[in-house]
Design goal:
Radius of gyration: 14 Å
Strand content: 35-45%
CATH superfamily: Hotdog Thioesterase
Helix content: 10-25%
Number of helices: 3
Shape: globular
Number of domains: 1
Order of helices and strands: EHEEHEEEEH
Number of strands: 7
CATH topology: Thiol Ester Dehydrase, Chain A
Strand order of the largest sheet: 1-2-3-5-6-7-4
């Protein structure tokens, strides 16, 4: 594993059980692949009384994108604030994430960007089947942008 949950938490503004990713399996200049089991956690902060809606997968993907930025030197430090400024072409194949018994694989590929804004395509899969995919634009260090 390239990065543990502790290392991930040092690269994103989330901590505790809001840090949804458990590890980074692969990372290069354009791509990251992460793993998570937090979709099965009864104390997942995104969980509702009905379970964990699949659209929460966008937050998993956004965290993977932020980790990618930190690991590839785009940010260089823990961002103080970040914003998901847009998603498009999002397709989900299941209604909820908590019904998936296997671990989640979260992949993101950088399509374009600079030090502060990046566009990725992402996918979440479980047991080899894609459960969600789409594209997202992220501002990785919003505090720096506002300065």
């Amino acid at each position: 594993m390239l990065a543990s949950k502790e290392r991930i938490a040092s690269l994103i503004p989330h901590s505790g059980n809001m840090c949804l990713l458990d590890g980074v399996l692969e990372c290069d200049a354009q791509h990251i692949r992460c793993v998570s089991h937090s979709h099965l956690d009864q104390h997942n902060p995104l969980r509702t009384d009905e379970g964990l809606p699949v659209l929460c997968g966008i937050e998993y993907a956004a965290q993977a994108m932020a980790v990618h930025g930190g690991m590839t030197g785009q940010v260089g430090h823990k961002p103080r604030a970040g914003y998901l400024v847009g998603v498009r072409d999002v397709v989900s194949h299941v209604p909820r994430l908590d019904t998936l018994a296997a671990e989640l694989m979260i992949e993101a590929e950088k399509l374009m960007g600079d030090d502060a804004r990046v566009m990725y395509q992402f996918s979440l899969s479980s047991n080899g089947a894609v459960v969600m995919q789409g594209k997202a634009t992220v501002v990785l260090d919003a505090d720096r942008m506002a300065a």
